[in-house]
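hey so u asked for the seq, here:
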Amino acid sequence: MSSDLSVTVEDHIAVLEMRRPPANHFDEALIGRVVDAALALDDDPACRVIVLASQGKHFCAGADFSGGEFALDQAAAAERLYRRAARLFDVRTPIVAAVQGTAVGGGLGLACAADFRIAEAATRFVANFAKLGFHQGFALSVTLPDLIGRQAAAGMLLTGRRVGGEEAVRIGLADRLAEPGTVRETARELAAEIASSAPLAVRSMRATLRADLAARVRQALDHELAEQMVLWQTRDSAEGIAASLQRRTPVFTGE
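ran it, structure tokens below
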């Protein structure tokens, strides 16, 4: 499809691979291509399951704050990105995310948009927003508590701590633990199990389970964007983002 996204379909399994290694940062354009490809696969009778994967060391480190759209206008760039990303929750085909390395910030949001997540022991799931000085986005206000419960979600969000693969499976953030280096193969194994089931029944069951999710996501995104726009004007947010780019510990003042 493009240099930063490939789509292959084989044995009723489509693999959407993001190709911006090593961190696979996304922007509105890449998210848009991922969403458009997934929606198109809804109408492809050869596809019954989607595996969302990434090239290189890490699954996804979220948005890149060092340049591009976010450097010009954070609020406008975030709103465009999240509006495009919300359409991912309209996809009717089951999605399995193969999460190697780290899924950070918006990358965690992308992983949580999938139906299932495959990790290995070295995988790290990180909701680092509090360490950057602003509110979580990508509908994590909905998806993270749905997966692991309100208390565990609060712990991840308020501390920004890293959750490893074994803990992720234990708390419900990941569904299967792969052997080192086999995340994508394990994701395909789960996808093959789903693909072997009756496809019309699978879509019907999934629609029932996720009946109100898209609506809840869009409502949450409105709130998240409003909170982000306020917090991006603070000194703490400027400090958090600068510290992240400079790879140092932020010093927050509550201003």
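The mean pLDDT is 95. DSSP finds twelve helices and nine strands in the chain.
lmk if thats what u needed
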